[in-house]
Amino acid sequence: MTIKNLINEMHEIKRKRQQLLEQAEELKLRQDEMEANIKTMLDEINEEYEFLSEEEFQMLLSDMANNSMLNVEVVYALPGQQTIKEIQVPRGASIEDSIKLSGILNDYPEIDINRQKVGVYGTVKALADTVHAGDRVEIYRPVTKTG
Q1: Which pairing describes strands 81-90 and 118-120: parallel, antiparallel, or unpaired?
Q2: pLDDT tier at 145, thresholds 50, 70, 90
Q3: Within this chain, do residues 75 and 132 fall inside the same structural domain, yes or no?
Q4: Residue 140 — very low, low, confident or very high, per pLDDT cuts 50/70/90?
């Protein structure tokens, strides 16, 4: 191999090294961007589920990652107004968990799930009962006399 060939090969190696360094920098920027996006998403999840204990929150994240979530609806009706929250809950979640995760208690602070009856599809249930995929969790208003 001639000196000219060696010099050309050395320049080619330097060029490829520079390309690799640029690609590494681009990947680092993408990684930083993804990490920032993940942090933002976790912050949003944290705000949405701030009422959960750290253990409950970690269990929820684990269940989300394991794709063992169920779709359920949480419903509360007032005269002339019905609110339906479509949510995902971890497999094994209770009616109470579903109500709390839905955020409906924030929307209607007058709801007292410890006093009001709850149910699924018109059947009264206990707060501790487990929900199943597709359940419609209902929060019943107290019966009041009119007139």
Answers
A1: unpaired
A2: low
A3: yes
A4: very high
Residues 108 and 112: their CA atoms lie apart, in Å, by 9
Confidence of residue 4 (pLDDT cuts 50, 70, 90): confident
Q: Can you give the pLDDT at residue 57?
A: 73
What is the pLDDT averaged over residues 82-107? 91
Tokens of 74: 């949480």
Tokens of 108: 């209607």
Has residue 115 been placed in a domain?
Answer: yes
Length of the chain: 147
C-alpha dihedral (29, 30, 32, 35), degrees to nearest 10: 180
42 and 85 housed in the same domain: no
- Mark 23-55 as b/e (b = at least 16 C-beta within 10 Å): eeeeeeeeeeeeeeeeeeeeeeeeeeeeebeee
Q: How many CB atoms lie within 10 A of CB 74?
A: 26
Helices within 1-147 (DSSP H only): 3-48, 54-65, 95-102, 104-107
Residue-level pLDDT at 146: 63
Tokens coding 60: 């929820």
Report if residue 62 sits inside a domain: no
